[in-house]
Amino acid sequence: MNDSNQIAVTEENLEDRELIIDQLMDEYSDIILHLVYTYVRNQATAEDLTQEIFIKCYEKLDQFHHQSSIKTWLYKIAANHCKDYLRSWHYRKITLNEKLFEYLPSKSKEVEEEIVTRNEENSLATAVMTLPLKYREVVFLHYYEELTIAEISKVTAVNINTLKTRLKRAKELLKDEMTKEV
Hints:
This protein is mostly helical. The protein has nine helices and no strands.
């Protein structure tokens, strides 16, 4: 199942939704999980949202009309689902609670931060994750998932020229961040 063109969604095989979703999950679950993580920056939340995304794909499989590749369609669903999550009351409440805990002294928090700091293998990946979402999104899709600017535009519904500007600005921010570390 290395060729994404092998997953064919047609009117005739829509009855085999489970098989199609199994194939999609086998081929795309890791990259969707990585994409989701770039939005939420929390592994457990990313895993939960990835499951929700594939459930949504299962439910909306009949709405795939081959206007783009199945991969682009999945990315669009994932990106929109993540953006909805980030706008949700639940997310804002969790973020507020985490910020409150930052002000409370805790040795376990210090130990956790020390472990995370030690385990970070790649300063560039770390720098990418500190970018604002609009830049992080375009960098991840372009460099990590190797989508073209046109494909990213389809996924994010953002104008191509805006994406080019964001990519340029993201490179500048990353360059500044990386030179600080040296």
